[in-house]
Design brief:
Layout lengths: L1 H10 L3 H18 L6 E8 L2 E8 L3 H14 L1 H11 L3 H5 L5 H28 L11 H17 L4 H31 L8 H24 L8
Antiparallel strand pairs: 1-2
Length: 229
Amino acid sequence: MKRLLMLDIKLLRFFPYIILTLFIAAILFKVFVGYDSATQVFVGYDNDMQVDKKEITFSFTDTFFILTMICVFFIHAQKYDTLRKHKIIQWYETLPVNKKDIRMENIILVLLSHAILLIFAFVFYAIHNELINIQAIILMFGISLTMNGFMLMIGIKNNLTYLLLVSIASVLFILAFGFHYLLIMNDINLNLNLTKRDFWRLYLYQFPYVVNAFGLGLCLLSFKVHRKV
């Protein structure tokens, strides 16, 4: 199992280096730029009266973190993309190992990469005591787990399957960023108190955990329900 995992890491080629580079960049931005995503307060005028207004600045730091998450999502797909490009899928599937070991290793690769990403998220948001902001990325994390679960279950059989799954995931990521991540950041930084409303509390702060549980269940279930690549 260990040798199989090491082989799969080699099949990822340059991907681990990209993820490591993004990880370092995100940490450096977080340490030296710090609150680039914090609420900026400035003085404005409303009906000739001086008032404080707030706006959210663009966050390069969080952008690096989200890019890291997207790369982690592609880890399993990148492995099979390498196998297809070099036309070694048949060789890989005839390795002198149990088929169940290959399935288990695929699951371990996905879950291990997401576990490392989760640890990184806690470290990233703990740097300036912003752990509350981790709630903003929980839905995107769950989408990554869920789509990888589908990949594990149905297999990446051909380019059409690959494009279909990646396209669906891309749309879901964009929707999660625009209608979940940004809403939570606004709720936190602008004190919108959306948690006081039942719908927003359910959608923003509880629904993402359901998606994560569903995604984890799919990954584990793929060990039993699996189709050949």
